[in-house]
Structure formats: structure tokens, C-alpha cells
């Protein structure tokens, strides 16, 4: 058990600070606008560049991680990520911010994804520890909204936050040095015949797209990204620019949302286990959409309902990943999840590229309805998929 303490501490810490780093840009987005004199479109570009980094790291990193030792891969990605944090902490330039945020967002996403991959390799109680590490992510997000939301009225707060994350990252490097990460067992066919050709990237994607559920799952996941990530990136701006709250108060509402999400991950895990993957997705997506719409339609008086919707959102992403895996053969499951998530990232990129300008044109009060609408489409898409294919259809080879 003593040998497992270092990996547990490492995974908990790195999941906490990667999640905290991801949520930081939404907290400081209003301040970026003031510091660099940005329009809504300029603010959108910051978010868009972060998701471009997310896409690039998922596509390239997923391919590379299968071909190099996991420890070396994780070490390399952490170097890229920590370098971006250092530049965030010690520079104050809009162009540098745009470039570095690609690496900070993409790097953190790849790191957290890699932790989920290596957890079953290091621990026997992998399901329990995956939930623990996801809980740490929620703690990181909530703490960021709460703590740094109090100092997001000046750009110095952005520099300070990144210096803190960089310091914790150095500690994680030390833990990683002393960790042993086993490599996954080779495929049986590959073991029997080492000369057997690997399926190419193109052939893998073609096999995934043969499944009729692939495109619907991409759309459903994309709607989830808009609903949840859109709130993470724009609630602070919406609250301060439209509802009349201060920036600090708006950031607190965001911390409440992720606080409810964090709590939900602990209390609803048994519910999901008992109700099943698909039924849970239907129930929680519908509940989230209803609370979301009530909160937005009620304006200033009902904004807490948006926060409470975090309880429903809490189980959607991890359960959605499990749902995607159910639709594909085991030989394609990992690649399929990566492909669907990467493709759905284009929804994030497209949404954030236009939302700021759209809000400038029609006003935040109207533009914000895109978020609950996307969540409603997520629920509707799941119902269509459920009644069309009650049993997940495996990909044909």
C-alpha cells in the first residue's frame, strides 16, 4: 500500500491543478478585456485558442501516447504545460496569452486524460480512485472560482494564480520521478504475431464512423460541451455585464455551480450504478436542462437555479464517456472515445469563436440562451438515440 501513496498523491494533485488552471481563464476573462482593451470578439478568441489547443493535444497526444512509455509521455506534456504556466505568470501580452493558452489548456486536458488511462494500470481499485480523482478536479474548479474570483479585478491576480499552479506542478514533477507506471499489456494477436500490421489511423477512424451512432454521439457530446464549458467561460461575464452583479459576485455563482457539481459526483455515483448508464443520462440531462432554463429565464432573481443545475451536470460527462464506449467494440473503444471527444471539441471552438461577437450584437440577455438550449438538445438527442438504438450497436469491422 505504501508504494501506492506517491501515485495517489500525484494523481490527486495534478488533477486538482489542471482543473483549476482550465477554469481560471473564465474567471479572468472580464479582466483580460480591460487589460488588453478587448471587444467581445477579442474575448472569444482567448477561449477559442484554448480549445484549439485542446483539439491538437487530444489528436496528436492520443496517437503518441500509444507509442512511447506512459511516464515519459506524461513528463513531456507536463513540461509543455508548465512552460505555458510560467509565461502566463511572468508576461503580460495579448499575443503571448493567445499562444500560451493553447498549450496550457491542451496540456492540462492531455494530462488529465492520461491520468484516467494510467489509473487502471497502477491500481486494482481503479473505479474508486477514478471517482476520487474526478472529485479532486471538482475541488480544483470550485476553489479557483471561489478563491481567485476574489482577486480577479486586477491582472496581478492572474499572474499570482499561475505562479501558485507552477509551484505545485514542480512538486508533481518530483512525485512523478519516483513513480513506476506499468505499460498496458500487448494485444493478444500482436503478442502471437509481432509482425501483424497495426490498424492505421485512417482505418481506425473509418471503422469508428461505420457505427451509425458515431455522428449522433459527436453532436450530443458537442451540445454538452457548449452547455457546461460555455457556463464556465461566460457566466462571470454574463453576471457582471448583464445581471448587475460585481465580477467577484459573478465568480462566486460559478463557484457554486461547480461546488454542486463536485458534491453531485460523490452522492449520485450509487444512483448511476443502480439506474444504469443510459437511464441516468436521460434523467440527469433532462433535469439539468430544466433547471438551466429556469435560472436563465428568471434572470437575477433565479440565477441560483443555474448553480443548482450543477448537480445534474455532475454525472453527465463521466457517464457520457462510458456510454460512448458501450457503442464500440473493445478494440476500438479507446480510439472511439478520443475521436468523439476531439470531434465534439469543434463545437467548443465554433461556439466560443462567435459567442462574444453575438453577445455584442444582440446583448448578453439573449445570447446566453444558447447555453440552456444546447443542454436541452443534449437531452433530446439522448432520447432519440435511446429509442432508436435501445441496445448499443457495435461497430462493424
What features would you describe in this structure?
The chain is mostly helical. 82% of the residues lie in helices and 0% in strands. The termini are far apart. Residues 187-196 and 393-397 have low confidence and may be disordered.
Distance between the termini: 42 Å
Which stretches of 5+ consecutive residues score pLDDT under 50?
Answer: 187-196, 393-397
How many alpha or pi helices?
18
Order of helices and strands: HHHHHHHHHHHHHHHHHH
Percent range for β-strand residues: under 5%
If you compute it from the alpha carbons, what radius of gyration comes out, rounded to the nearest whole angstrom?
Answer: 21 Å
Number of strands: 0
Largest sheet: none
Q: Which class of secondary structure composition applies to the elements? A: mainly alpha
Amino acid at each position: 500500500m505504501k508504494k501506492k501513496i506517491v501515485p495517489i498523491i500525484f494523481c490527486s494533485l495534478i488533477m486538482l491543478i489542471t482543473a483549476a488552471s482550465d477554469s481560471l481563464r473564465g474567471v479572468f476573462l472580464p479582466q483580460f478585456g480591460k487589460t488588453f482593451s478587448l471587444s467581445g470578439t477579442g474575448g472569444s478568441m482567448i477561449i477559442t485558442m484554448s480549445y484549439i489547443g485542446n483539439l491538437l493535444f487530444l489528436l496528436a497526444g492520443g496517437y503518441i501516447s500509444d507509442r512511447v512509455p506512459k511516464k515519459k509521455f506524461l513528463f513531456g506534456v507536463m513540461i509543455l504545460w508548465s512552460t505555458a504556466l510560467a509565461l502566463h505568470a511572468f508576461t503580460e501580452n495579448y499575443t503571448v496569452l493567445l499562444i500560451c493558452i493553447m498549450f496550457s489548456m491542451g496540456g492540462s486536458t492531455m494530462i488529465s486524460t492520461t491520468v484516467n488511462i494510467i489509473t487502471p494500470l497502477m491500481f486494482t481499485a481503479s473505479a474508486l480512485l477514478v471517482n476520487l480523482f474526478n472529485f479532486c478536479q471538482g475541488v480544483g474548479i470550485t476553489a479557483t472560482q471561489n478563491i481567485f474570483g476574489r482577486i480577479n479585478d486586477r491582472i496581478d491576480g492572474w499572474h499570482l494564480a499561475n505562479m501558485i499552479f507552477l509551484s505545485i506542478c514542480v512538486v508533481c514533477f518530483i512525485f512523478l520521478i519516483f513513480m513506476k507506471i506499468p505499460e498496458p499489456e500487448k494485444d493478444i494477436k500482436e503478442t502471437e504475431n509481432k509482425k501483424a500490421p497495426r490498424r492505421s489511423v485512417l482505418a481506425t477512424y473509418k471503422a469508428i464512423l461505420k457505427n451509425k451512432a458515431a455522428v449522433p454521439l459527436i453532436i450530443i457530446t458537442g451540445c454538452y460541451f457548449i452547455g457546461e464549458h460555455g457556463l464556465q467561460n461566460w457566466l462571470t461575464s454574463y453576471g457582471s455585464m448583464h445581471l448587475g452583479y460585481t465580477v467577484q459576485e459573478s465568480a462566486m455563482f460559478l463557484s457554486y455551480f461547480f461546488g454542486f457539481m463536485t458534491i453531485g459526483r460523490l452522492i449520485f455515483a450509487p444512483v448511476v450504478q443502480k439506474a444504469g448508464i443510459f437511464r441516468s443520462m436521460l434523467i440527469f440531462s433532462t433535469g439539468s436542462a430544466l433547471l438551466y432554463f429556469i435560472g436563465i429565464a428568471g434572470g437575477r432573481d433565479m440565477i441560483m437555479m443555474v448553480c443548482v443545475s450543477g448537480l445534474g451536470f455532475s454525472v453527465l460527462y463521466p457517464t457520457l464517456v462510458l456510454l460512448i464506449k458501450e457503442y464500440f467494440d473493445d478494440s476500438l473503444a479507446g480510439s472511439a472515445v478520443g475521436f468523439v471527444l476531439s470531434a465534439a471539441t469543434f463545437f467548443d471552438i465554433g461556439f466560443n469563436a462567435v459567442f462574444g461577437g453575438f453577445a455584442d450584437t444582440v446583448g448578453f440577455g439573449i445570447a446566453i440562451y444558447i447555453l440552456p438550449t444546447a443542454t436541452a438538445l443534449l437531452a433530446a438527442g439522448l432520447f432519440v438515440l435511446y429509442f432508436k438504438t435501445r441496445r448499443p450497436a457495435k461497430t462493424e469491422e
